[in-house]
Design a protein that fits this description.
- This protein is of the alpha/beta class.
- It folds into 2 domains: 159 residues, Medium-chain alcohol dehydrogenases, catalytic domain (Quinone Oxidoreductase, Chain A, domain 1, Alpha-Beta Complex), CATH 3.90.180; 140 residues, NAD(P)-binding Rossmann-like Domain (Rossmann fold), CATH 3.40.50.720.
- It contains 10 helices and 15 strands.
- Strands 3, 4, 5, 6, 7, 14 and 15 form a 7-stranded mixed β-sheet that branches.
- β1 and β2 form a beta hairpin.
- The chain is globular and about 60 Å long.
Length: 338
Amino acid sequence: MQTAIESQRGELMQAIMQEGYGSGDVLRPRTIPKPALADDRVLVRVRAASVNAADYHLIHGELPIRLVAGSGLRKPKDPLCGSDVAGVVEAVGAKITSFKPGDEVFGSARGSFAEYASAREDRLVPKPRQLTFEQAAALPIAATTALQGLRDIGRVQAGQRVVVYGAGGGVGTFAVQIAKALGAHVTAATGPRNIEIVRSLGADEVVDYTQEDIRRRRHQYDVFLDVAANRSLLSCRRAVKLDGTFVVTGGSKSGGALGMFGRIGMAFVLSRLGRPRTAFFVAKLNREDFLVLAQLVEAGKLMPVIDRTYPLAEAAEAVRYALTGQARAKIVLTVAPR
């Protein structure tokens, strides 16, 4: 089987390589072979890629993360970075039937922090025309997490009261819009820097959680989606109706691996303690949900929010900014067309 950095002879590209673990300083622009065109793969000329929590957790690379992810102990087994992608189909393998060269697409492709990336056919969908490549690249992981957390785990129904806790982040900005699209009454809780951004997304109520503690609103919400991971699970759970659902996803960037796994463990314990229903989940990327997201965009119900964009060569700076915990909405890398 061909690996992600096997190539056709003589064809090179620029890519961001992870040369160890730590801060963004371990990321280096390198010239490497362009991915080979396998029969069951789509070669995408990358125009944009976004930074996700999974990326900076893998880059930071605390020992528990390395063990769970199957990464190398001293340096990554696969030094390529990134997953979210938007770009133009460069070439297709002999078994590909859904795409042709020139198609504009978005989705998931390992090693998307590069000029080219090799993607599975079932991890790409056509890019909505009204989105830029930067906006489309912001969708895959964050918007899928919001969609599955609300629709599949939270089982949100029209008329229910939903709180998105951490509404100013990448997942949160999508969750506010998706909850509204599902017909919910949405309370968006965020920090003071994000109030205006979140208010523009159509939430019914926007709360600065440094000024008001909505966790004291006992048993008010049908669904509580916690993406901030900066408050105790027990206190958040008290705000959920006894027949409601407390949905936990992700972990704090400041708590380290032990804090993140401790949070997962606590969510598991709470899931065994009766009502309200508690569930921790990690999104599963798939073509069907990418198509749902595209349909929501085309219907005018979903629009990515981007905090900052960086050129590909400045990926290290983009990750450093993400790790500060001050980022709002999405951070995107751009790749100039050849």
